[in-house]
Amino acid sequence: MAIKRLEVSNPAYTLANTQFLTVHSSHLGRRHDVSIYNVNAKGENVPIIILMHGVYGNHWVWTNLGGIDKVYEQVKAEQKINDFILVMPSDGGLHDGSAYLPTTNNGNYEQWIMDDVLSAVIKTVPSATVQSNLYLSGLSMGGYGALRLGLKYADKVAGISAHSSITQLPEINLFTDIDLATYQCENSEEANILHWVKHWLAKNKETLPPLRFDCGKGDELFQGNVDFNKALSELNIEHQFDIFEGGHAWEYWHEHVAKTFVFFDQQEKNKTLVSY
User: Fold this and answer.
1) Can you give the CATH number for the domain in which 80 is found?
2) CA 94, CA 106: separation in Å to the nearest integer?
3) 196 domain residue, yes or no
4) N-terminal to C-terminal alpha carbon distance within the chain
5) How far apart are CA 98 and CA 94, in angstroms?
6) Which of 42, 66, 156, 195 could cross-link to 276 by cystine, CB 3.0-4.6 Å?
7) Cα separation, 264 vs 160, whole angstroms
8) How much is the mean pLDDT over the chain?
9) Could you list the residue range(s) of the whole structural domain that residue 195 is in?
10) Can you point out the beta strands (E) in 90-233?
11) Phi, psi (5° rounding) for residue 211?
């Protein structure tokens, strides 16, 4: 499938080093938006980070609630990290949150991210190419998206970093009363993150991308993250789980998204090209 239509912001009227896209998604049959930061990155094959937001949010929250552009520039100046293109898409606009799933009846929000958004970035950002390494990150529902998509598409993703993540789909009802039947998928195991871990274990564990995640002690999702950490450890999956003070709030994410940039930079320093 191909993008049906693409609108690109004019740099003469747009914030410096920023680009906005409106993409008529082939997988959703409607328009949704994407914010991109560091569109002026120099060179070829600059790595791409897709950052997925949580329930209630949209493409603009990472910059305008989380100040992620300022965090990125600070980390880059202080730690001399690699250039990254920061891609911040809408989740696709299903009720309070799509969970980035390929639903049976309500749209394919997985392919909106992995196909339409990625294709739109490569079409419009000169330094982004099919040879750019792809990294996935997110917060809350977006952390769930990063974990699930990163592990399902383990052969296409160079690293995963998630913050304050939903780790099992029913936890979305801590934030919204949406009927879980809305998320029904063709594959009954689709929404289960550990299903995708076991899928790759059955093939070749070495294909799993580097993985880290964190959560605050005061977060309602903390116990779920502790349990997920335990499950990965029992499966002998190499990963990093960090526990910090704090709750489910932008103050926490503004502070700790810096760990994502440093972690992904470490992967770039040991670069292995992942083709998609």
Assistant:
1) 3.40.50.1820
2) 8
3) yes
4) 15
5) 5
6) 156
7) 8
8) 96
9) 5-269
10) 134-139, 159-163, 211-216
11) -135, 130
